[in-house]
Specification:
Blueprint: H1 2-15, H2 19-45, H3 49-55, E1 56-64, E2 67-70, H4 71-83, E3 87-89, E4 92-100, E5 103-116, E6 119-134, E7 137-147
Parallel strand pairs: 1-7
Antiparallel strand pairs: 1-2, 3-5, 4-5, 5-6, 6-7
C-alpha cells in the first residue's frame, strides 16, 4: 500500500509539470528538423557532397521538376546547373513540423531565387520532407518539391525547366 501511494504521488507530481516544460523538447526537435533541411540546402549551394551526405538517410530520394532523383542524381544535377552558371538561393519559410517517434514530416514554403547571366528571378517552391531520427540526428529520407507558377511578366532570367536532365546513373 505504501508503494501504491508513492507511485500515485509520482504520477500526480508529473501531471503538475507545466505544458511549456513538456513542449520545450518537442519545439527543439521541430527546430532541428527544419535545421536539417536548411543544412541540406546549404550543402547543395556549396557543392559540398560530404555535407549533403550528413543530412540524408540511406535510400534518400526526391521528386523535383517531374523527376525522381536519388542523392547522387540531386547532387550532380545541382552541380551541373552551377557549372552552367545557374545559382539557386533557398530558404525555409513557415515550416510545419510533425513528429511521431523517430519519424518527422515537414512542409514549408521555399522562398528563394534562380540566377544566371540574364538576371535573377524570385521563386517559391512548396516542399515537403520525411525525416527519420537515427544515429543521434535527423536525416532526410524523402523530399518533394513543386515550383509555384510565376506571376505573368516577372521572368527576367532563364528559368531551368523540367527538361531532360543529363544521364547521371545507369
Amino acid at each position: 500500500m505504501k508503494n501504491l501511494i508513492a507511485a500515485l504521488g509520482v504520477l500526480l507530481g508529473l501531471s503538475a509539470i507545466p505544458a511549456s516544460a513538456e513542449e520545450e523538447p518537442l519545439q527543439s526537435s521541430q527546430a532541428a528538423v527544419a535545421d536539417t533541411m536548411r543544412a541540406m540546402f546549404e550543402a547543395l549551394a556549396r557543392d559540398d557532397r560530404s555535407g549533403l551526405d550528413r543530412t540524408l538517410a540511406a535510400g534518400f530520394y526526391a521528386y523535383d521538376g517531374g523527376h525522381e532523383m536519388n542523392a547522387n542524381d540531386l547532387f550532380k544535377y545541382v552541380q551541373w546547373r552551377h557549372n552552367s552558371g545557374t545559382r539557386y538561393t533557398w530558404s525555409i519559410a513557415e515550416p510545419k513540423v510533425h513528429i511521431s517517434g523517430d519519424l518527422a514530416t515537414i512542409t514549408y514554403k521555399n522562398r528563394g531565387s534562380i540566377s544566371d547571366a540574364s538576371g535573377t528571378v524570385a521563386m517559391t517552391w512548396l516542399e515537403a520532407g520525411i525525416l527519420r531520427f537515427q544515429d543521434g540526428r535527423w536525416r532526410i529520407e524523402f523530399v518533394d518539391s513543386t515550383r509555384t507558377p510565376l506571376a505573368p511578366g516577372t521572368a527576367t532570367a532563364t528559368i531551368p525547366d523540367s527538361s531532360p536532365k543529363p544521364t547521371i546513373h545507369p
